[in-house]
Amino acid sequence: MENSQTLSSENKLYTLQLASKLESITELEKFIDNLKDELSIPEEIYANILTCMNEAVINSILHGNKENPGKKVYINVESEHGKKLIFSIKDEGDGFDYTSIPDPTLAENIELFSGRGIYIIQHLADQVVFNKSGNEIELTFRY
Fold it and tell me: Which of the four CATH numbers 3.30.565.10, 3.20.20.70, 3.40.50.10350, 1.10.760.10 does domain 3-142 have?
């Protein structure tokens, strides 16, 4: 694990910092694989986590940090009582207005190449919260 810390007898905190380049996704996937093994995350939840985290981190790298390798993407994961995981993904960008994301299921958006990441995240995670400036997202998964 990149960095882990015990918060209490049943809670743990894990952290990871990634350079803003798409190659960092490999490091993210290894980090999530290690979490799956250490915390005995069920396969279905693991698949949802992997999909959501890939989408969120790619958005942070491409849109938030504009692929500036000098900027980082910060990931914190809190495991609560072996029943819930809370992922926080933050970039060093200016953020965005998460309330004005076009619906990718509308006819005018259905054939667009991009614009589905947040939609996918909102349907796979149990809870999704953005900070006010839009440069941090918190994803909760229960298992």
Answer: 3.30.565.10
